[in-house]
Amino acid sequence: MSNTATLVYDGKQYELPIVVGTEHEKAIDITSLRADTGLITLDSGYANTGACRSAITYIDGERGILRYRGYPIEELAVKATFVETSYLLIFGELPTASQLADFRALLAEHELIHEDMRHHFDGFPPNSPPMAILSAMINAAGCFEPVFMAPDDDEHFMESAARLMSKVRTIAAASYRKSIGKPMNYPRPDLRYTANFLHMMFSRPHRLYEPDPVVVEALDRLLLLHADHEQNCSTSTVRMVGSSHANLYASVAAGVCALWGPLHGGANVAVIEMLTKLLESGEKLETFIERVKRRDAGVRLMGFGHRVYKNFDPRAKIIKASCDALLERLGIHDPLLDLAVRLEEIALSDDYFIERKLYPNVDYYSGIIMRAIGIPTNMFTVMFAIGRLPGWIAHWREVRISDSRIDRPRQIYVGPAERSYVPLEERG
Ligand code: CMC
User: Which pLDDT tens digit goes with each residue over 225-252?
Assistant: First the structure.
């Protein structure tokens, strides 16, 4: 195998180095391309651009492989917890029993938000989208935290990571309580991460919500499955903001905004809205699929398709199995699940979806699990954010401990060529 690629341009030949990753994936290193040739590369949507070298997550979209720090997602999903997986992502290795105990202790220690932050929640109008509250409050939380985040010091950084993970969970639950006009619940240190979140969401004064272990397990797995996904839109955002040496809170707040969009994390909401509309309107699923194929008013089959996975999304497989098991154990029959299954069958046997390699993604069935748990639709993307947080933290840290430069892409300018200012009275 050659370790350079040859580019011929304008009668000259250039040798560009080939970079090889752990799994033998290959890239052309174009770092010196502009200096040598005057050319830049153009790649809309970065679909073919390797923005960095990363040691956190590996994806093979053709073979449906997802691994966190080398561990297959299928194994972690049944053997590990979300907190253990978070530690793995952030620090690179599975924790020992004492490291895990220390990390859990820090999560419990930092679960309260500063009392003054409670007033910030009152400033949001009723029905504010929880993703807007979440992003704003993470930035606000940064004002109450020590700025010293020591990304290259494991011990200090463990405290920063635990602090942020714990507070984001408290903020998320509080934003929900605010959105339904109910008082915020203080966290319970006797409960672990996911159970504590459920308590903060659903306990009422004098009526404690006792989290069902089946529900806790299902939600914990869902968070774990969302924990990282290499250079997706929100993670790239966190990395880009972090590359300017903005602090962890500011970078993660930006990531929340990127995740909010319906083509990214917001798709879990869009799926439930799509299924609910279909159920209420009684539209034939075949007719709906025809509309998708015709792109009537830009309609898409939400929860289908992925930039990287072109065979299946391994997370979707686990989520579907988890969804079936949870609903059965809770004795819930959700008509939206029946609809989703039928819609999937129709789509997967249709040439449009086959040719374009469109399969259910992580968002297709996750909403059904969250509905069964009692999480309202407008909180779905917030749940995604809680899950993705350890990935964002790991990537922010990776950027900060590397010697990478500030992210700053180039462009091909296609606007007007130079022209002179026209005085107001002369403009037509
Ligand atoms: N329904 C109908 N057609 C689709 C869909 C869909 N869900 N997804 C892609 N296509 C078509 C698209 O119209 C295009 O067709 P053509 O080649 O004829 O123009 C082709 O498939 C390629 O699509 P693309 O938009 O160029 O693909 P992309 O890699 O830019 O976008 C995606 C990936 C996930 C944004 C897109 O598949 C999509 O919009 N899916 C629905 C939203 C969704 O479920 N998002 C969650 C993604 S997974 C979790 C996450 O990232 O947060």
Answer: 999 999 999 999 999 999 999 999 999 9
pLDDT band at 97 (very low <50, low <70, confident <90, very high): very high
Q: Taking every pair of C-alpha atoms in the chain, what is the biggest distance, in angstroms? A: 80
Structure token pair of residue 28: 């052309």
Would you say the CB of residue 265 lies under 6 angstroms from ligand 1? yes
**109/103 Cα distance (integer angstroms):** 10
pTM above the 0.90 mark? yes
Mean pLDDT of the chain: 94
Q: What is the DSSP string of 166-222?
A: HHHHHHHHHHHHHHTT-PPPPP-TTS-HHHHHHHHHH-BTTB-----HHHHHHHHHH
The pLDDT value recorded for residue 410 is 96
Helix, coil or strand: residue 17: strand
Q: Are 87 and 100 in contact (CB under 8 A)?
A: yes
Give Cβ neighbours of residue 258 (< 8 Å, ≥ 6 apart). 233, 234, 236, 237, 264
Specify the amino acid at residue 398.
Answer: E
Cα–Cα distance between 205 and 11 in angstroms, integer?
78
Decide if 387 contacts 226 (C-beta within 8 A).
yes
Atom 20 (ligand 1) nearest CA = 356
The CB of 313 under 6 Å from ligand 1? The reply is: no
Residue with CA nearest ligand 1 atom 49: 264
